[in-house]
Structures are given as C-alpha cells and as structure tokens.
Amino acid sequence: MHLPFIRRILLAYVLLTAIVSGVFSLSIVAIVHLVEEHLVANDMLRDLNTALQEDIALKQQPRLDAHSQLFTTLDARYALPEAYAQLPEGFSEVFEPDRAFYAYTLLRNGQRHVLLQQQDEFEQREQALFNIVLAGFIVTLILAWALGWLMARQVMRPVSRLADDVRQLRPGQSPLHALQRHYSADEIGELARAFDTTLAQLQDALQREQWFTSDVSHELRTPLMVIGSSCELLEQSDLQPAQRNQLARIQRASQSMQELVHTFLQLARDPRHALANRRATLGVVAQEHVEHWRQAMLDKGLDFSLSGHAAADSHYDASLLGTVLNNLLRNAWHYTENGHVRLELHEHGFAVHDSGGGITAEEQAQLFEPFVRGRHARGEGLGLGLALVKRICEREGWQIEVSSQPQQGSCFSVRLKS
C-alpha cells in the first residue's frame, strides 16, 4: 500500500513521538514502582523493629495501623502461620485468592518475625499514577498528530505548488527557467531547476522532431511521387515481360516506402493529431501483403497460405497495419528455410505461423527491443523491425504475443483493438 507522502511524514512523526513518550512513560512507572517498593520496605522494617523492640519486648500491643499485621515466634499471641513460615528474608509480596500483602521477614537470634501490610493503599497510588501517565501519553499523541499534520502540510505545500506548476507547463509554450525563479535556493528550488533543465531538453528534442517530421514529409514524399508517376508512364510503354516484372517490383517498393514514411510520421505525432490515411479492413490489407510476398515465398520453396476470415466491419489505418503485417511476414520468410509460412486471420486479429528454427526463451525476453537480433540473424537488418511493430501496437492499443520453441517454429499473434 502506497501512502501519500504527507501521510508518511505524519505517520513517522506520530510513531517517533509514540516511541519516545512510551519509553518515557514506562520509565516513569518503573522508576516510581522501584522507589515506592524501596520506601515501603524501609517503612515496614522500621515498623517491625519498633514493634519488636518497644512493644513485644515490653509485652505491649504492637502499635501498628489497621492495615498491618505482626507475626513472630517470640510471642504465642502472634503465632506465625505455617503459610508465612517459609517466606524469604527481606521484602516480598504475598498473594491470596482475595487479598494481596506486602511482607517483610526478619530473622534475628534464631527467631522469625513477619510483618504483613495490605497493598490497597499503594495499589491506589499506583493506579492513579498509571492513569496520569496514560492520559499524558494519549494527550501527547493527539498533540503530535495535530502538530505533525501542520508541519507536514507546511513541508509539502511548496512541493504541491511545484507539482501544479509543472502540470501547467506545455513544451514550446513556457519560457526557459519558468519554475526556478519562483522558488528559494533550497531542495525545492533545486528540484524546480532540475525540471527547468529537463523541460529545456524536451523542448529542444521536440523542435528537432518537428523539423525532422516536416523534412521527411517534404523531402521523401516528393521523390516517391515522382517514382510513382514515372512507373505509371512506363506501364503505358511497350515493355517485355521481364521488364514489366521489374517495373512491378519498383511500384511495390515505392508503395512500401510511402507506407513506411506515413508510419514514421504517425509515430512521431501525437495520437490526437494523427494524419489522415486510407483505412481498410484486416482482410483487404492481408490480401495485399499476401500477393506481395507470394512470389518470394514460392522462390524460396515455402508453402505460403492465407486462412481464416477477419471481421468485415472493423477498419484500421492501412499503413500501420500493413507495416506490422509486412515485418512479421518478412521475418517469417527470413528465418524459415523449408516448410511453411501461414497467415491466419480471425475475428479479433491475426497470427503468422512459420516452421523456422524457433526462438529461445532468453531471446523472447528481449525480442522487441531495438537493435536486438536473434542468434540465427539473416540479411543486413539492424534489428528494428520487431521494435517498430511493438511501437505501432502500443500506439494503436493492439496486443502482440509470441510463442515459440527451438526447432519447432514460431507464432506471432496480434490482437487488434476494434
């Protein structure tokens, strides 16, 4: 359970007070008890000596209060009961079912003398002392809670104000050092300066990102449009079959580059301000990429198939979905030497199955990290394809999972958000 910081400060303050005041209160009770016991023992010894030397010796009635009793082997009138005959010498306590006594035993000249004194008076004193100490302990805790609450609020007030100021900041809209000038040169001021520094770095990174986005949009899309229009003109020419095949490859590559440019631009933008793009169903996008990869799969001797049916009423960004499909199919083609690659559609998404070498559990743990390639890496890739797939899925709210065993192939499943 995570408590707010202000409550943790309050809890620490109250606990510290409880520990200190508790130890102090218990010490008072223990010291008073020891002192009281010592005083009782001295009073009882004095009363016992007085009774023996001034009363019993003169055959007189012992001058004791109503709460005290004398037993001695010197005088048959005060015969020592068997129950008290074995009491240890000195001060002790005697507990009976309905009474309790202080006892002081004195051995002198072979005679045993015992003075008993009821504890009621002392118990009342101890109970009064205990009540006072307990009341003081409770009052101390209440005062500690109130004072701790005030101190915690005082400590957290600048922190809360700083949090509000940070929430109101907007990259590109707030001037540099907008925070630190409002706070003193203490720990809170240091934190404000750290926020200012980080905000400046974010503004710089955002500016570079915006420049890059606009440069990509202008510098890459223009030559791609030229390539596309040139291909359309070449289609009208009298070309040989081999030349038309090469032209078709150029057109597919150009289309793929256009989709990648759109994908990168989408990922660089805030999802709330996404670029408008063609939307299509999973079935349509899947069929397009199956046609794109069919010949490459056949040339490698792989059995390539499309099975299942996708929902016909759900539409997605064609470029983003196509990038995910294209990367998964490319990986399956790269890592499968023989056997099959199968694209399976279902109502909520799709799965790409292959009969390649499989992926170990250690590799699966970091499979979607940038620049990570498996131990059977092929081609000249940089290990960015699956990282890109993961970013797209996270942005669109899709879920991607992988299941694989070494030498048993792999399956990448993507569940699309409707």
TrEMBL record:
Reaction catalyzed: ATP + protein L-histidine = ADP + protein N-phospho-L-histidine
Transmembrane segment boundaries: 12-35, 128-152
Record-level GO cellular component terms: plasma membrane
Entry's Gene Ontology molecular function annotations: phosphorelay sensor kinase activity
CDD domains: HAMP, HisKA
Enzyme nomenclature, EC number: 2.7.13.3
Tree of life domain: Bacteria
Location(s) in or outside the cell: Membrane
Protein name: histidine kinase
Native organism: Atopomonas hussainii
